[in-house]
Amino acid sequence: MEKRRLGRTGFEVSALGFGGGPVGFLGTDQDRVTNIVNYLLDNGVNFIDTAAGYPGSEEALGNAVNHRRDEYVLVSKCGQAFDDLEGEAWSAQVIEQTVDRALRRLKTDHLDVMLLHGCDQEFLERGEAVEALVKARDAGKIRYAGYSGDNEAGLYAAGLDAIDVIETSVNICDQANIDSLLPEAKGRDIGVIVKRPVANAAWLGVGQQPGFYANYTTSYAERFGAMGLDPADLGGGDWAEIALRFTLAQDGVTTAIVGTTNPDNAKRNIEVAEKGPLPDAAIATIRSAFAEAESASGEAWLGLR
Ligand SMILES: NC(=O)c1ccc[n+]([C@@H]2O[C@H](COP(=O)([O-])OP(=O)(O)OC[C@H]3O[C@@H](n4cnc5c(N)ncnc54)[C@H](OP(=O)(O)O)[C@@H]3O)[C@@H](O)[C@H]2O)c1
Predict the structure, then answer these.
(1) CB 201 less than 6 A from any atom of ligand 1
(2) What pLDDT shows up at residue 3?
């Protein structure tokens, strides 16, 4: 498995990472999570992403792999308010409690990166949320602070000295950050984690996904339909392969954290990641299809949170 440097953090992380969203939102059972994540660690993946906001995900990952804590770079996210925590969203009070709770749930004494989970730019400008992460870093609870988000807010965050890592959407159906945030991050030596790297399996179509994801995936499924791509024009392979290899090919991407609840897909994603980037001609076709469909839609296809 190819390793890439996560910007100025210096962590050497696998090009394929694990995204802990679906196992939380879909309530995947503990044995299945344990099997998937240990399989990935056994096969070269060393990057795990989760969040306070993915129900049960931090706990399940803590149970699954805490005994191997020195084998992976661990990222979680915070800032949202929760019923069982005191304080407003994006306040220092909530962030401090969420960091401490993440350490308990993930059964560890430190997180490698803690990200602010998609706050609007006004909360970045206010400073309190970023300062709370700096305080957690100074206390040794987290190693680096980061921001998860897109578009203008992502660009603003990438310009903050305290922000060493950005998590953002890049995929075949979400290309807005490719020409803006990726070069900015690269120029500042900021590591980039790609969320939604296989476009939430947009090829399945509108409303065809389970639970939480039935609505969550609608915009990508609509964009995918409008792009009218044909895999035969893209060098072969199924959509999951084309999508992951497209994302991994983008300059400035450090790791693509594919979410999966399926051990067969976890295995397949390792095989695909090892094939390396998609050929340039296929990438150009996908980029043109996005630009043309966006233009025809009459609205800007921004990076989706
Ligand atoms: N910060 C944020 O605001 C934010 C937002 C979104 C995501 N994230 C993070 O980014 C991670 C990745 O995003 P995501 O999970 O939303 O989207 P994703 O990784 O683009 O797509 C996940 C979907 O792809 C399917 N899939 C994975 N591998 C496949 C394969 N080989 N063949 C066919 N289908 C495959 C999964 O289904 P199966 O379960 O059936 O494999 C799941 O439905 C999340 O898990 C989370 O950690 C962060």
Answers:
(1) yes
(2) 98
Residue ID of nearest Cα to ligand 1 atom 41 = 260
Strand spans (E) along the chain: 3-5, 12-14, 16-19, 47-49, 73-78, 111-117, 142-148, 163-169, 191-195, 255-259
- The answer to whether position 289 is within a domain reads no
Q: What band does 235 get if pLDDT is binned at 50, 70 and 90?
A: confident
**CATH number assigned to the domain comprising residue 163:** 3.20.20.100
Domain membership flag for residue 138: yes
Tally the C-alpha atoms within 13 A of residue 231's C-alpha that lie toward its C-beta: 10
Structure tokens that stand for 126 in this block? 């206010």
Confirm or reject: Cβ of 63 under 6 Å from ligand 1. Answer: no
Which has the closest alpha carbon to 268: 232, 293, 239? 239
In a domain, 228, yes or no: no
Return all residues near 259 (Cβ < 8 A) that are at least 6 apart: 18, 19, 20, 21, 22, 23
Give the mean model confidence (pLDDT) for residues 57-83: 98
How many angstroms separate the alpha carbon of residue 128 from the centre of ligand 1? Answer: 31
Q: Is 118 in the pocket of ligand 1 (CB under 6 A)?
A: yes
**Does 14 sit in the ligand 1 pocket, CB within 6 Å?**
no
Q: What is the pTM of this model?
A: 0.98
Interval 98-129: pLDDT, tens: 999 999 999 999 999 999 999 999 999 999 99
Domain of 99? 3-200+251-276
Q: For ligand 1, is residue 141 a contact (CB within 6 Å)?
A: no
Closest CA to ligand 1's atom 29? 265
Q: Which of 36, 262, 271 to mutate to test the pocket of ligand 1 (most atoms within 8 A of CB)?
A: 262
Question: 168: CA distance to ligand 1 center in Å?
Answer: 13
pLDDT for the residue numbered 236: 78
Task: Look at the chain and report how many structural domains it folds into.
Answer: 1
Give pLDDT, residue 21.
98
Q: Is there a domain that residue 286 lies in? A: no
